Amino acid sequence: MYRSEDHRTFAAPSENGMEAPGEQSASDVWTRVKRRLRAELGEDIFASWFGRLELDSVIEGCAYLTVPTRFLKSWIESHYADRVLAVYRSESGDVERVSIGVRSTLGRDPAAQRRVSEAPRPAPTASTALPSASGELKTPSLPAPQEARGESGDLGGAPLDSRLTFESFIVGRSNALAHAAADRVAHAQNGQAIYNPLYLHAGVGLGKTHLLHAIGHEVRAQGRRVIYLTADRFMYGFVASLKAQTSLAFKERLRGIDLLIIDDVQFIQGKQIQQEFGHTLNALIDAGRQIVIAADRPPADLENLDERVRSRLAGGLVVEVSALDEALRTSILTTRVEALKTIHPTFEVGPSVIAYVARAITANGRDLEGAVNRLLAHATLTGSSITLETAETAIRDLVRNREPKRVKIEDIQKLVASRYNVSRSDILSERRTAAVVRPRQIAMYLSKVLTLRSLPEIGRRFGGRDHTTVLHAVRKIEKALGEDHALSDEVELLKRMLQE
Ligand SMILES: Nc1ncnc2c1ncn2[C@@H]1O[C@H](COP(=O)(O)OP(=O)(O)OP(=O)(O)O)[C@@H](O)[C@H]1O
Predict the structure, then answer these.
(1) ipTM of this complex prediction, to 2 decimal places
(2) Which pLDDT does position 445 carry in this prediction?
(3) Span 180-188, mean pLDDT?
(4) How far apart are CA 273 and CA 253, in angstroms?
(5) What rounded mean pLDDT belongs to the chain?
(6) Range in 79-88, 232-241, 329-338 the model is least confident about
(7) Is 363 contained in some domain?
(8) Which end of the chain is more exposed for a tag (fewer CB within 10 A), N or C?
(9) In a domain, 115, yes or no
C-alpha cells in the first residue's frame, strides 16, 4: 500500500547549518514549495493534504510547518515527509529538516507561542479567546531556539507549560487514580522510580498532558533532571543523533537524567526509531530512572510498536483517565471562570449557566476551556452579562462540532480517488484494472460503513452498479481488513479523515 513506515526521517544528510533566511525570503521560498507540491502531486492531493499546511518559521536549517489537526500532521509525516523535504531542499539550500507541528490558536507568532511556557497564563483577550473549531489550545511542539544550546536541547527536550501544574489540575472520579499515581511518582522518596514506567492513557483532551507537565514541574523543583519529549521530539532527537554520528547512542545520552516523560507515544513510528525507543526504555528502567508515558490508547493497542516494547510499557502501572464526569466538568468550569475573574473582575457566570455548559460540553477539557473563553469574549465584546441564551449562542459551534459529521458518498469518492492517484470518474467508470478496482471497492466499503445509504443506493451512486456488486466489494474489503494490517491502518485513517 502507500505506507512508508520508515520515512519519518525529516532530516536530510546535509552538513549545512546556515542561518535562516529573512522573513520575506522564507515566505517566498514557502510559496514556491507549495507551488511545486501542487504541480507534482496534482490539485486534488494538494488540496486534501497540503491546503492547510502553513509555514511557521525557518530556524537553524529547520522549516517548522504547522497544520490544524494531529491527524493531518501524522498523515503528512507518514506519507509525504520525504517529498516535502525534497521539494523544500530543491527550493532552498538553507533548509535541511522539516518539522510539522499542530497549530495553536493562542497566536501565530511562534515566539509568543514559545513564551507560553515561561509566562503566566495569558489573559484571554478577544483575539486569544476564540479557539478554533477543534478547540485546540495547546502550544505546538516547536522547539524553542534557546533550548538548542542547552542540555535538554541536545536531547530535543520540549519546554514545560507553566500553567499545567498539580495546583491547577482538578481531581474527580474519572482521573483520581491517574492523579494519585502521578502524585506518587512526582513525590517519590529519594527520587526512587516507582511504577516504572507509569503509563497514562486517555482520549483527547482529558488531562494527560496536564498531568505529565505537573509531574515534570514537581520533579524539576526538587532539583532533579527532567526531560519532557513528545513522540515527535523523541524521533527528532534520535534522527539528529544519528545524523551527528555521535559516539553515544541517544539512550546513553538520556541516561544522565532522572525522569523521562514522553507524550503521545502512539505517534512513534519507523522500525529503527521503535528499536531505539525500546532500547531507551530498557536502558533507563534498568538504570532505575523513572519513565512516564502518555498515549491515546493502552499499550496493547499501540500497533506501531514491537510486541516486546508494548509489554515493557505495560510492565509498570497502566492507568486510564476516563471521560470527565459532570461534577468534574462543573469544577473545571468554575475554577476557570474564577481564574479569569482575577483579570476581568466584571466577568460573571452564574451557576445555571455553568450547569448548562457542563451538561452541553461533555467531550473534553479543551472544549470546556474553549467554552469559557467564548463566554468571556461574548461578555467583553457585548458588554452584557451572560444569560442562558447568550451562553447557548456563544458555545453553539462547540456543541455542534461534537455531533458526528455526516459523510457524503461524493466526498468518499473524492478522497479515495486522490489517495490512490486515480480520478473520481475512474472510480465511477467500468474500468476493471487493479489500480481502479481496489480503490473503488474501498470507496464502496466506506460508503456502506460511514453513511446510512442502502446497497442499491450506493450502487447507483457508483456509476449505476448493481447492489450485489456493492455487497461483493464490502465483503471483499472486510475480509482483506482482517488479513492485511497495512490496509486496515490505511482504511482507518481514511475513515478518520472523512469524519474529522
Ligand atoms: N482535571 C483537569 N483539571 C484542570 N484542567 C484540565 C483537567 N483535565 C483537562 N484539563 C484541561 O483540558 C485541556 C486539555 O488537557 P490535556 O492537553 O492535558 O489533554 P490530553 O489528554 O493530553 O489531550 P491530547 O491527547 O489531545 O493531547 C488542558 O487545557 C487541561 O489543562
Answers:
(1) 0.97
(2) 95
(3) 94
(4) 16
(5) 79
(6) 232-241
(7) yes
(8) C
(9) no
Name the pTM for this structure. 0.57
Domain holding 235, by residue range, is 145-321
Burial of residue 65 (CB within 10 Å: 0-12, 13-18, 19+) is: buried
Q: Is 150 annotated as contributing to ligand binding?
A: no
Rounded to the nearest angstrom, the distance between the alpha carbon of 180 and the centre of ligand 1 is 16
CA geometry: angle 426, 431, 436, nearest 5 deg:
55
Residue 272 belongs to some domain of the structure: yes
Choose one of 401, 430, 452: the last residue of a domain. Answer: 401
User: For the chain, how are helix, strand and coil distributed in percent, rounded to 5?
Assistant: 55, 10, 35
Give the total residue count for the chain.
500
| 209 in a labelled binding site | yes
Residues with CB under 6 A from ligand 1: 138, 164, 168-170, 175, 202, 204-210, 296, 332, 365-366, 369
How far is 226 from 212, CA to CA, in rounded Å? 11
Cell of 498: 472523512
How many angstroms does the Cα of residue 369 sit away from the middle of ligand 1?
9
Q: How many separate domains does the chain show? A: 4
DSSP state at residue 21:
P
Q: How far apart are CA 3 and CA 75, in angstroms?
A: 10
Nearest one of 203, 187, 194, 167 to 335, comparing CA atoms:
167
Report which of residues 199 and 230 the model is more confident about: 199
Strands 198-202 and 97-102: unpaired
How far apart are alpha carbons 225 and 216 in whole angstroms?
9
